[in-house]
Amino acid sequence: MNGNADYIKQETVTGVVPMLKRDRKYSFLDLFLSTSGFAIATWCYTQGAYVAQFLSFKQMLINIFCFNIVWITIECVPVLFAVRYGIDLWIWLRSVLGQKGVAAIATIISLANFGWYAVAANLFSSSMINLAGNFGVALNPAIWNPVLGTVCVVLGTLIALGGPEVIKWTNRFLVTALLIVGTVVVVLCFTAVPISEIMAVKPITDNGISPLANFMLSAEGNVAFAFSWSTQALVMPRLAKSERSGYWGTSLAYGVIAPFFVAAGGVMALAMFVRTGIYESDPTAMLSTLCGAGFALLSLLLVAFANVGTQGTGSYVNCMIVKSGLPKVSYKLLVIIAMIYVSALTIWGGVNDHFGAFISLAAYLQGPIIGMTFVDYLFVRKRKISLKSAYFMKGHDAYQYNNGINWVGIGCLVISFAVAMLFVYNPMTGEIKSNIFLITTGSGFTAIFGAVLYYIASLTPLRKYMLRDREDLEIV
Fold it and tell me: Which residues pair with 382 in a beta bridge?
């Protein structure tokens, strides 16, 4: 009995069993700080520098905040069910994708999500090398980039192994300091370079690309950035004490705090361009150039703690995603496997070289899931699922569908991905294939199209197949 009690206690933390209200320990502030700590790693500066090259200062701010806030507001609506039922998104998605469908898609998306942590680890290593150089210590990047990047991953893994309680206390102190640092960074940039010169920077434009197309290409990056949180965002809210704290703690972190740091990265990149003629995404190099070597210590706090904290939270969240599909696999084993995988991506370094294509391709998988989840929650399943079927209790097999796969949900995902790639926007080549892109972006199209397909399917005879759980709810 004691062993069984320990197992239940462990699994309510690691995501298999529904979280009971009495066991939830995250207040609004705890969730907001933990989620913010996850969101503000230095990939925000990579994203900000990427957008800053193609837009004017005012356009950059509009692009970053508007597209992030709009999509985060929508994609966080299902946080309400995550808190109400004490489960995460991937448990609910067993009703949309089926048991084996969730196992397959959760694993694929987590493999894609972990690419972000390789980006963070590579930024950590390059920043530490630059920092050492500022203090007269020359480190060979060929040797130290993979070593320091792996150190970042290992330190984050130690936090992940501590579970939500360690993550909560780590981020409670970390995020407060980093928010102060981010504000100071923006002030320093405007002090180092006159704002009139920053606002006067002309965006880079390719021949034949209209100003609207340029704006929407940048928007594609920001929509994909917003989508990158979606499949991860709805894991931690299950720890929240109330639906209100769960929703606002999540949406404000991803919709306001993360874009603020993206904008800070954009401002820094523009200031660097004014000073040196080069766009830069490494905050250590930017702060050292703009504000002197003394401020390198500030960047040490910014880069080291942000990336290590994000590695820890991200490892926990993405391992929970995989565990939702493969519940019998040990959480600790998944964290160790994730450490090895992210370390390999970090040493390889290829994710950084194809950053724009990477985030869009990942978003093309996440977009249809966002759309289908939103429609399923509000209009098709109407905020009710069978927990007995979701956990495959004996006699409750509504979500088994065809050998564990809901072909309607999987079909909507595959069709949305293919149509966007072939007829709207190809992120691998950067080719705009339809004017629809100028309205929705490519990633936004996948979410809208996936939602429409799924809703139309629910109006056809397929509805009975999709809502097999209604009979199960009546039995319950």
Answer: none
